[in-house]
Amino acid sequence: MGQCGITSSKTVLVFLNLIFWGAAGILCYVGAYVFITYDDYDHFFEDVYTLIPAVVIIAVGALLFIIGLIGCCATIRESRCGLATFVIILLLVFVTEVVVVVLGYVYRAKVENEVDRSIQKVYKTYNGTNPDAASRAIDYVQRQLHCCGIHNYSDWENTDWFKETKNQSVPLSCCRERASSCNGSLAHPADLYAEGCEALVVKKLQEIMMHVIWAALAFAAIQLLGMLCACIVLCRRSRDPAYELLITGGAYA
Q1: Which contiguous run of DSSP H or E holds residue 102?
Q2: Which among 69, 109, 225, 240 would be 20 to 30 A from 153, CA to CA?
Q3: Using CA atoms, how far apart are residues 9 and 162, in angstroms rounded to an integer?
Q4: By CB neighbour count within 10 A (0-12 exposed, 13-18 middle, 19+ buried), where does 165 fall?
């Protein structure tokens, strides 16, 4: 009966190690996605420490490849030392993922204040004639998120660019996709996106952080199961003499 329990635990453990390799790829993908998306919105969020959870989750993903290898070798070779090492490393990674979740929630809460502080400055320095990186970022966000201005298109009236151009129009990136004849004129507000960008940028950044949080939580649960199975194999191996004799090739009477 004990032997069957050990065999079942070992089978689950080997299966979990294969999942760890898949999880490693997914975690690295999530971390890379955060970096790429952050690059599109970095002018609206200056706190680079927000990337810490993404950096950690990529490191965890890389470590999971090694963990999966150690776990498979230790399980197949019946190595007590290897399984113990496997459990210890899993425990450390589990603690790291808990830290990622906590940091994710902390920085997710800071997003709104950070964006509110940065977006005012970015819009104020907009230059549609000779666009710099910040100006291109504004046009990109307005096209991608289908928004215009900070709270709505009327915010453009308070910018230096609007006052200098004196043509009573907003950037073409404010034009709705279906408005083919739109030239950004405030005389035709129906052609412009009505929603402001600040709320949508905040929502987008918070969604990105939630991807990190959910990924960390999901794989932390898998790691708990891995640690449980490894501990079962270790404990039953040390307590069941029949199992020990089976491994060493002896006979049990």
Answers
A1: helix 80-124
A2: 109
A3: 68
A4: middle
